[in-house]
Amino acid sequence: MFVHLRLHSEFSVVDGTNRIDDAVQVAVDDKQPALALTDLNNLFGTIKFYKQARSVGVKPLLGAEIYLESLTQDANHLSKMILLVQSQQGYLNLCELLSRGWTQNVHKAVGVIKLAWLQELSQGLIALSGAQSGPVGQALVQGDLSRASELALQIAGIFPHRFYLELQRAGRSDDEAHVFAAVQ
């Protein structure tokens, strides 16, 4: 059984090209029991996605790809992670995180989530590492295995039993280096 846990729709203003109706239909055609919508830094498509997926028997998984403040000494270096909703409290916490990012910490025209906010509002959320775009993956691609391990433990502490390393093979130049380093 395969389930997509990362999907940007037309509601990902910068890079979304997938229409929700089409994505849900592909999930039906592929006999996927569930599908996650993880638009970039917003939940704009949540209601449309939820209704469409439920209407055809696909379990809708709600979430977002977030920008996370730098966890290195370079304050300008942002990373990304996926947060998936596990409960009603998780949905409320994700809404609060995104709202804070857009109202209190805009950096280079994007709302950025602070690590302290994640520590405060992690209940009911599942975290995916963000593959090579996430803080752990960036350290892995740079060859800093000890820093990657330190970051993974730090984030796992924020999301106990709810943090997962993401591996991606999509034909990008750094995919294999990241996968190789992550499985070490």
Describe it for me?
By secondary structure, the chain is an alpha/beta fold. It has a domain at about 65-180: Metal-dependent hydrolases (TIM Barrel), CATH 3.20.20. It is built from seven helices and seven strands, in the order αβαββαββαβααβα. Strands 1, 2, 3, 4, 5, 6 and 7 form a seven-stranded mixed sheet that branches. Helix 5 crosses helix 7 (about 175-180). The relative contact order is 0.12. The model has no long low-confidence stretch (mean pLDDT about 90).
Mind sketching the topology for me?
Elements: H1 20-29, E1 34-40, H2 46-55, E2 59-68, E3 79-85, H3 88-104, E4 106-107, E5 110-113, H4 115-120, E6 125-128, H5 135-141, H6 145-158, E7 163-164, H7 175-182
Helix pairs in contact: 5-6, 5-7
CATH fold type of the domain at 65-182:
TIM Barrel
User: Shape from CA axes?
Assistant: globular
Helix/strand structural class: alpha/beta
Which radius of gyration do the C-alpha atoms yield?
Answer: 16 Å
Low-confidence sequence ranges: none
Number of helices: 7
Oligomeric assembly: single chain
Salient structural properties:
alpha/beta; single chain; globular; TIM Barrel
Q: What's this entry about, in short?
A:
This protein has a domain at 65-182: Metal-dependent hydrolases (TIM Barrel). The longest helix is centred in the middle third of the chain and has 17 residues, at 88-104. By secondary structure, the protein is of the alpha/beta class.
